[in-house]
Amino acid sequence: MLGCMSGGPRLLIVFAVAVLLFCANKIPELTRSMGRDIGEFQKDARKPRTVKIHD
């Protein structure tokens, strides 16, 4: 199946399968954390910014 692929794509597929097999229980926690971080970033991006200029 992977015989016709060159080294780069083959390695990516093998790496993706290994991550899914060995880290499958961490994926929900990781996606939850990423969602919280994105929400926090968006919340901070909506805040008005004030700049104080001292003469």
Automatic annotation (TrEMBL):
Pfam families in the record: TatA_B_E
Key words, A-Z: Membrane, Protein transport, Translocation, Transmembrane, Transmembrane helix, Transport
One GO BP annotation of this record: protein transport
Gene Ontology cellular component terms for the protein in this record: membrane
Keyword Transcription attached: no
Entry membrane topology: Single-pass membrane protein
Tagged with keyword Ribonucleoprotein: no
Subcellular location: Membrane
Protein name: Twin-arginine translocase TatA/TatE family subunit
